[in-house]
Amino acid sequence: MLHPRAGFRQGWRLLVITHLLTSHGMGTLAVRMHLFSPYAWLMRIFLRSEVSRDFGVQLRLVLERLGPTFIKFGQMMSTRVDLLPLDVALELKKLQDSVPPEDFITVRGVLERVFKKPLLGKAGVFKAFDETPVAAASIAQVHFAELPDGQPVAVKVRRPSIRKTIEADLALLKLLANLFDRYFPEYQRLKAPCVVAEFASTITGELNLRAEAAHASRFAKNLSDVEGVYIPTVIWNYTYTEVLITERIAGISIDEKEALVAAGHDCINLCKRAASLFFHMAFVDGYFHADMHPGNIFVAENGDIILVDFGIVGRLDLKSRRYLGGMLLAFLKRDYQRAALVHLEAGYVPAGTDMSAFEDALSEIAEPIFNRPLADISLAELLFSMFAVTERFQMETQPQLLLLQKTMVVIEGVAYELADQANIWEMARPLVTEWVAKNLGPAARLQQGADDIRSGLEGWLTLPTQIEQALAGRESNVFAPVSSASSLWQRLVGIMCVAGGSVMIMQYAIEPWHLPIGVLTTIIGTSLLLRR
Q1: How does pLDDT run across 183-218, given as a tens digit for each residue?
Q2: Which of 209, 286, 396, 436 is 20 to 30 A from residue 340's alpha carbon, by CA?
Q3: pLDDT tens sequence across 444-478
């Protein structure tokens, strides 16, 4: 039953959730999770014959009724085919984050509270302010305005009650996740509480508009050497947690093909540049815009691609980038044996995996995709299908790749609208090949080896200090006269192990396997010397 400490509002919200679950054919779920069980049981009896059996559709409808936080959660879950059946994940992709804008009086109140001065007038924050928003989403909305010096700007204002709403909804999601984990032990592998915690981290990050401003500044720095890309400048002295102000940009939304053509832009060239831009962010920087829908991408009069809205960003460490580059190149070459080895080398599949069966599974996933016409080949779909085999081969899910896959889906959709016969990944293939050669070739492996040696030596150089500190804390010196032959042999063996291990570490550049053996031998020798 409902926990007695739950507040009235949370209890009422849980009752609403119970009603929605049972009225959409998920009464069993509510009953097993002990959500107002008698009510859920009765509702299930009365509505059993009226409910559709399409679980994905019903789940989407429930999430839509529960509001923006649950819609965003459903959108995130639509990428988790390692957790959800494919048909359910595909249905959740239809969720749309669409809410009416806040009225101007409310927006004005937020701005005057944050800046502690009137919105307009001689002592006001702005010289002019457009009351009608140009964009509105669940967390914030954007207005055009002019600063006192006449500079045109875009003002992003966070909804005043959104933090409390999201915090309350997250508390409910965490409660539901814990109940699901408790009462559905057969599905504990889904790690529902961890999934909700990951989502909570993402959505709470979007609430801080100063953090978004920092993201924008980092993208501007990272992409400063990429020709034809522009990031609006942040007006830092006007930016707060609830308000973000940037210079106003002028451009055509990248999904307005007719307007782009009329303005003289080459759509094929835009596709190629969009592919290069995304590739540069993901592979070169390891820091990518993770919300690249058409409303966040514009084309300037001079042809520059303008990015806005940096609330969600993705990060890829070098290991993930090397894995992804090697995997994509292997798939583009249809070399499934190499693709399987890349997974093994990255540690994404267990060492005991049947590589022949894994290679067959990769071929089974990829061949239907690569046998399509070039324009219909989707690497996002390839990754999507890859995640679906994680349970079969006990692969660890990589959250950073899930966000990348979601972004790739959006990018492919944008490119298709621009030029439906083009394939942006084929356009990016030379860039992928060059990057892989540079980062996975012999020179890169030599550099990686040098980095490993340096790390090993840094650890080795601290060892004498650690031994000295350990010896200082002992009551007697390890090299003091010994009372038995066994103790003497113990110390002699210890000295030999330390000496031999040191030599092996120094020869690591000749044989890489010397390093782990050398370190282990040295540790054993040290423990023998310090043993009473």
Answers
A1: 888 777 667 888 888 888 888 888 889 999 999 999
A2: 286
A3: 555 555 555 555 455 544 555 555 555 555 444 44
- Separation of alpha carbons 399 and 376, rounded Å: 26
Distance from C-alpha of 321 to C-alpha of 314, rounded to nearest angstrom = 12
Instruction: Give the residue from 325, 330, 331, 314 showing the smallest Cα distance to 382.
Output: 331
Strand, helix or coil for residue 30: helix
Which amino acid appears at position 393 of this protein?
F
Which residues are catalytic, by number? 291
Q: With 60 as the cut, is the pLDDT of residue 47 above it?
A: no
386 and 365 Cβ atoms separated by less than 8 Å: yes
Using DSSP, state whether 281 is helix, strand or coil: helix
Write phi, then psi, for 146 (nearest 5 degrees): -130, 135
* Cβ contact 201:260 at 8 Å: no
CA–CA separation, 156 vs 208, rounded Å?
Answer: 11
Tell me the pTM. Answer: 0.69
Q: Is the pLDDT of residue 42 over 70?
A: no
Residue type, 383: L
Q: Where are the alpha helices (DSSP H) in 283-335?
A: 318-332
**Contact (Cβ atoms closer than 8 angstroms) between residue 277 and residue 226:** yes
Distance in angstroms (rounded) separating the CA atoms of residues 177 and 55: 18
Burial class (CB in 10 A: 0-12, 13-18, 19+), 312: buried
- 342-347, long-range: CB within 8 Å, 24+ apart, which pairs? 343/395, 346/319, 346/322
Euclidean distance between CA atoms 131 and 356, whole angstroms: 63
